[in-house]
Amino acid sequence: MNKGIYIATLEANSGKSLISLGLMRTLLGKTSKVAYFRPVIEDLPEGKMDNHIETILSYYELPIPYEDSYAFTRSEVIQMRNKGQSGDIMDAIIDRYKKLESQYDMVLVEGSDFSGEGSVFEFDVNVLIARNLGLPTIIVASGVNKTKEELLGSMEMAYKTFMGKDVDVIALIANKIQPENLELVTGEMGRFLPEEVEPFAIPLMNTLSNPTIKEIMEALDGKVVIGEEYLDNQVGSYGVGAMQLRNYLNHLNNDSLVITPGDRADIILGALQANISSNYPRISGIVLTGGLIPEESILRLIDGLSQVVPIISVQQGTFNATNMIGDIQANIYASSIQKIETSIDTFMKYVDFDAVIEHLINLKPRGITPRMFQYDLMKRAQKEKKHIVLPEGSDERILLSASRLLAMDIVDITLLGEPSKIEEKITQLGIQFPNRRPHIVNPVSSGHFEDYVQTFYELRKHKNINMDIARDMMSDVSYFGTMMIYKGHADGMVSGAVHTTQHTIRPALQFIKTKPGVSVVSSIFFMCLSDRVSVFGDCAINPNPTADQLAEIAISSADSAKAFGIEPKIAMLSYSSGTSGKGQDVDRVREATEIVKSKRPDLKVEGPIQYDAAVDMTVGRSKLPDSEVAGQANVLIFPDLNTGNNTYKAVQRETGALAIGPMLQGLNKPVNDLSRGCTTDDVFNTVIITAIQAQGL
User: Fold this and answer.
1) How wide is the angle at C-alpha 404 spanned by C-alphas 334 and 692, nearest 5°?
2) What is the rounded distance in angstroms from the CA atom of residue 578 to the CA atom of residue 607?
3) Do 483 and 456 touch, CB atoms closer than 8 A?
4) The CATH number fitting domain 366-512, selected from 1.10.150.170, 1.20.1070.10, 2.40.10.340, 3.40.50.10950
5) What residues contact 485, with CB distance under 8 A and at least 6 apart?
């Protein structure tokens, strides 16, 4: 059984980081514990981490000590090889790898960077490591500056070399290919590959190839003048500002980098004004050459602008600085969240690795793990993209999550609010939307406003609603967003970051209404614990449900769990287990359990049962030895809101569990409520489950 995968490249700058990031996401969606390992890393200044390792460990929050994630630096390998200690090198690499293999379900091993001595040496080292670790290998090659024949010839040679050294190759990936040539390249690879080896091609992504201002500053040893918080701005193109301003403005492109001597205040101020103007494209930053910076009065003027871009100063002259910028190779850093998520999205879009991974892992984990669950959520949301409206459009958490969701192409988004205020907030936060932007709608100036007012009036006039009241209601973002769903202009809504639960769900209860056969709207949280995912309900809506309502909450929660890939085993929680307890509260739970059994005999349900007996196998067997739920419950139904809300928060805070939700159940169309203390991740996850609900699950 294989417990690792090796990524090998044929040259430097092949885009290997994209493959590692995407493959790690795929692996974490298929098995619970994945490690990352680099046998050989580049030599680095003391105290600085290898960029590849830092990026993977940081983004995926892998609990691996940095020193365990690699074996040697390049200089150490060369020194040992020169001393005839090649065998010791391999022994140490195997030892480090085996340590990780014994602790994890899968290890992703990334080969060297080809940035040192001859590529033949590095290629041979990669073959040798993969062979000695016994790992199936993915070969990655870049199509940049190669003819079709050169690319395919090098890939066929690499494939035959690895196979000839008894290394199984499971896939070939041609990276950085012109989009129009993708099918041609995969087809040609298929000519020399056997059926079991998968060929893939990934297009050249300019958003990943272009450097950030931070990379340019570091390469030129520059200093920040203004806008340090925007150094992650990505450069789309660059040009020298040497001509008159009136002529130079015509040469600006979207995300242009302006390179100009530091004493050209006219170019600097003109470029910044163009960045603000709706008649010119946005710029990414300004490089001031010659070690010159503008006078204090000019700097004070710039600092007071409502929108600024990073401005850096370099010692090089304009000609040298421009040439050096043109030679910079863009990288992905731990802080480059936008590039990381673009890489993952690109991998997921062009590399269908599910069948290969299933074959490699060959494991059947007990239940669904949190990583599997979150991976599955994103994959399911992406299969049928939905349109989600977010009424609290100017909230920082909403905007940050929207940028992530759009970058990963999970949903379409509409933000409600005053467009100028939202755009100002986007600029303040330095948020960029490289692929597509959200729709921004002011309810009262929307073309649908009068239609929505009329519709609301017709729906609610029996409640003594007149047109003036209807107009006031539709001016409210919660009512407007809910009406978007009702009219089919959006598929779901997520709110509550700044509004109360009542404010969020009241419009839905008034005209979205409940599904046929459902009498009570309830909620669940998906509690992502360290080794499993449990469903908690109801922790947000119903204070003191009756036995009938409790039974309906349990049935709805079980159906929701099943729709999200969790085979439900329901525990109807109380302060006693089985027949031991008496009293009004426990009798209500007992009655609710019997109602569930009579209405849905297909469901596994136990109650009344205490929390420890529900989730701990030893306690469960002791208290209810004949139960098929005790000790393994994954749908936990609390007897009242007080118990449920306190329990979910206690579990979340004390165990560090991720609580996704609340997800409302029972409405005809999905509307979900956030906590006012929610994080950006909470918004991100809630939007995803809302999108999946909108698919009809």
Assistant:
1) 130
2) 6
3) yes
4) 3.40.50.10950
5) 389, 491, 492, 493, 512, 669, 670, 671
Decide: helix, strand or coil at residue 307. coil
At residue 576, the 3 state secondary structure works out as coil
Residues 6+ apart with CB under 8 A from 11: 114, 119, 141, 142
Query: Kind and range of the H or E element at 225?
Result: strand 223-226
Q: Tokens standing for 242?
A: 């040497």
Alpha-carbon distances of 518 from 521, 551, 627, 667, rounded to whole Å: 8, 11, 29, 8
Q: Are both 213-326 and 366-512 of the same fold?
A: no
Q: Is the separation of the CB atoms in 221 and 315 below 8 Å?
A: yes
Selected from 3.40.190.10, 3.30.565.10, 1.10.10.10, 3.40.50.300, the CATH number assigned to the domain covering 4-205+344-357 reads 3.40.50.300
According to DSSP, the residues that pair with 138 across neighbouring strands are: 7, 171
Instruction: Write down the domain spans for the chain.
Output: 4-205+344-357, 213-326, 366-512, 522-666
Contact (CB, 8 A) for 438 and 414: yes
Element housing 599 (H / E): helix 584-599
Helix/strand/coil for 38: strand
Q: Which residues of the chain have pLDDT under 50?
A: 118, 362-366
Cβ–Cβ < 8 Å for 111, 124: no
Res 120: pLDDT? 60
- The DSSP-derived string for 67-116 is GGSEEEEHHHHHHHHHTT-HHHHHHHHHHHHHHHHHH-SEEEEE-----S
- The span from the CA of 461 to the CA of 465, in Å, is 5
Specify the pLDDT at position 366.
Answer: 46
Residue 684 has phi, psi (to 5 degrees) of: -55, -50
Topology of 522-666 in CATH? Answer: Rossmann fold (3.40.50)
CATH of domain 213-326: 3.40.1390.20
- Burial bucket for residue 513 (CB in 10 Å: 0-12, 13-18, 19+): middle
Residue-level pLDDT at 114: 64
pTM given for the model: 0.65
